[in-house]
Amino acid sequence: MQPTRRDERDQIRPDADGALVRRPIDPQRLLAAVASPEAGANVLFVGTARGFTNGVETTGLEYEAHDSMATEALERLCTAAVDRFSLLACAVEHRLGRVAIGEAAVGIAASAAHRRAAFEAAEWLMERIKREVPIWKCEEWADGRRAWVHAEPAAAARGGDAGHERGDGPVDAGRRRSRGRGRRR
Q: Domains of the chain by range and CATH?
């Protein structure tokens, strides 16, 4: 299946669409985008900015991306998910820019004939997005420090980012890392 594109009114058209957005993510819009009379399951995953990470208060997040590469990767992953899990449709949106605590940073919707495929697809997509899509996350902490957080398994294995391989906590406080070296979270 070929990935679909957004039309001029910025509406998602099934069967597979991935997009970067600079506005709040609307979960109902994502669910509506994958709705189908053949669906026995419509799964929605919304990843939100949390207020504490490993005991450190976070006041907000900021996301940046290589827009064209990230959009292409999101669309490729959505198409792969449709094929791999026999989905009827899937749609992904990832925020760019500042994301306040409690706001959605990513939304994934998947529809399938049966629930297992839809659940597995949503989880598979989130894991692949974290590993493969060139999007970077900066954590902003209550003490005023900021740090770009990347998933760099090699650094984690060396102990440099131990415990933060998946972006589960602050690393490199106060300095910005080269965004070309790793991935976010």
A: 16-146 (3.90.1170.40)
